[in-house]
């Protein structure tokens, strides 16, 4: 009878181990091999604009040209000095949250960081995969640590047969527990970033808007922040399949800050209903399809927008002006 129960335990252990292992390898694979997304064509300078920009040598006149081009784009962030964010290397206007990666030598949408562990840039296209990679690798290490614990104790109480294999138990326990600690700290930090809707770069340096820096500029509240990364279909949350919302080029920003960390709202208004109306800080710009997909149920890679999306947008986007239609 006891032998039967032990056999059952072993089968369960093996099954759970392999499920976690497969999910871990899948998420790791996706993080490594998903190409980082670059800004859309409309952010690139046209041939004539390039020539115009080259002809001007004064910074102020160049900014004038860039400001004119930026007028038609959903760009709300600025440099520290208030200038339009422009990438010399890629010759494009940087969309909000986009940064130039010096390792990849490209502008990466919603760049988080360049990760040497995956030899890839972590950004809009693979941030969900990176989160799942952290989650499953942590789960994997914790599973090994806990199942190895009883043998680790037996090692010290001389309960193990005296063979070389007992040192494997020791090594396995130490390596799995050490990785668990470092992965847990990184995973908790990134969970916090997801909750706050910040990238690692934005956590180091808050984005600059026209009204000044605002570390919570992209935060929409916990639930919407989570949905922005993981998508609005719960069945895809634990699976390393792309389901993040938006196109990576434009992001809704809240005028009224509901975050208790920042009591003063940039627009000076105090209620959410007010912010959707007259309290606007920026001029409202007409948005194209690709820029107004964020937080709708349409998959973000697809160029088609469902007919029923408009209602949904209206509901979700209270207090987030760029997407309110
Ligand atoms: Zn660039
Ligand atoms: Zn990179």
Which key phrases capture this entry?
325 residues, mainly alpha, three-stranded antiparallel sheet, two-stranded antiparallel sheet, 9 helices, 9 strands, 7% strand, elongated, disordered C terminus, binds zinc ion
Overview of the molecule:
With 325 residues, this protein is mainly alpha-helical. Among the domains are: 105 residues; 82 residues, no CATH class. Helices cover 43% and strands 7% of the residues. The protein contains nine helices and nine strands. Strands 1-8-9 form a three-stranded antiparallel beta sheet, with no helix packed on it. A hairpin with a 4-residue loop joins strand 6 and strand 7. Helix 1 runs antiparallel to helix 4. The N and C termini lie far apart (67 Å). The C terminus is likely disordered. The structure holds zinc ion (2 copies). It is found in: Membrane. Belongs to the DHHC palmitoyltransferase family. It comes from Characodon lateralis. InterPro entries: Palmitoyltrfase_DHHC, PFA4/ZDH16/20/ERF2-like. It is a multi-pass membrane protein.
